[in-house]
Amino acid sequence: MRLLVAAILSGLVFGLGVTISGMNNPEKVLDFLDIAGNWDPSLALVLAAATGIAGLSFRYILKRRCPIFGTKFHLPLSNDIEFRLVLGAGIFGIGWGIVGLCPGPAISTLLLGRWQAYVFLAAMIAGMICYQWIDARLTVLRESAATS
């Protein structure tokens, strides 16, 4: 029950922050990304504040023996920059630049009834399904090549 309450409160704080900052407004996000045109630097403050708070929080949190709602921290085991990571980040950035939404703000935008959020989420789900399908096929191909 404590985990559910924490999750709901975290989601509410996130959604409220996204809404107050304007990050769920695609036009505002696209103006922020348009440095050569009608640039709106206000989201830089949001990104700087989020990065600063996250940085300070992680320094404190990782000094703990374990997370509050878990038995161990699940941190990346590798720092390698792989092609799949770069490709995924590129696709994410291109999608963000075209639509002006990313997953978190898109979900919070659903409640506002903006059609862009519904189109974005449908495309995101389709992309996840395509990724799973392609990854499964490539895994089979790699395994068969390794055994030959």
Write structural notes for this entry.
With 148 residues, the chain is an all-alpha fold. It has one domain (2-147). Helix content is 71%, strand content 0%. The protein is built from six helices and no strands. α1 (2-21) packs across α5 and α5 (103-109) packs antiparallel against α6. It is globular and about 55 Å long. The model has no long low-confidence stretch (mean pLDDT 88).
Poorly predicted runs are none
Number of strands: 0
The best one-word shape is globular
Helical segment count: 6
- Proportion in helices: over 70%
How many structurally independent domains? Answer: 1
How much is the radius of gyration in Å? 19 Å
Mean pLDDT: 88
**Most strands sheet:** none
Following the backbone from N to C, one meets helices and strands in this order, namely HHHHHH
What distance separates the N and C termini? 51 Å
| Portion in strands | under 5%
**Structural class by helix and strand composition:** mainly alpha
In short:
The protein is mostly helical and 148 residues long. The protein is built from 6 helices and no strands. Helix 1 crosses helix 5, helix 2 packs across helix 4 and helix 5 packs antiparallel against helix 6.
